[in-house]
Specification:
about 30% helix; globular
Length: about 190
């Protein structure tokens, strides 16, 4: 369908597949936990897409290499990617785009972002276990771009509010790794 819509334009369909935290950090499972011999849904999806002419960007090996290098891809108390993990995905996507569009290369994390380490309240995993997330905490690195996120023409939404990414809160509060939710937040306004 996408290729039909593109007409004669040379397009490539790329699926970016993100494994879950247990695939990258199986050591957090209880000792003696045995994986069944069947293929996971994730593995089935990878195999199915590989049978098409679409390109598969499976982040598993990239994440495992980052983990081996000592980088934290997933939070300890939350099931989501860390901001560093998100950067790794962004860079992998930009590497593909830069093959045809060199100007689409990823911004350098050490040169174009300021890192701040914050002790955060526990995330969704701690919360779902019924733990007090103000007691169960973890250190998280947050990255702020040193460049402007006010790109292109400013559009207003129906209420007249700005649509610039930089104008929205990313997290619930300064000690949270949980995305802000509710009316007027970035999580609500963006399509992930």
């Amino acid at each position: 369908n996408f290729k039909n819509r593109a007409g004669n334009a040379p397009v490539e369909l790329v699926y970016v597949l993100i494994p879950n935290s247990l695939s990258i950090n199986p050591e957090v499972l209880k000792e003696g936990t045995v994986r069944e011999t069947y293929k996971t849904r994730y593995e089935q999806v990878v195999e199915a897409i590989e049978q098409t002419d679409a390109r598969v960007l499976d982040m598993t090996d990239i994440f495992l290499a980052e983990k081996e290098a000592g980088n934290k891809i997933f939070y300890d108390t939350d099931s989501h990617l860390t901001e560093y993990g998100g950067y790794v995905v962004y860079k992998a996507i930009c590497d593909i785009l830069a093959e045809k569009f060199p100007e689409a290369k990823a911004r350098d994390l050490s040169k174009n972002f300021t890192k701040k380490t914050v002790v955060c309240n526990g995330g969704n995993t701690a919360k779902s276990l019924g733990l007090d997330t103000s007691v169960v905490t973890e250190k998280a690195d947050f990255y702020t771009p040193t460049f402007s996120l006010k790109l292109g023409k400013e559009d207003k939404d129906i209420s007249g509010a700005s649509t610039y990414i930089a104008d929205y809160d990313k997290y619930d509060n300064e000690k949270s790794m949980v995305l802000a939710s509710g009316t007027g937040t970035l999580a609500q306004r963006m399509i992930f």
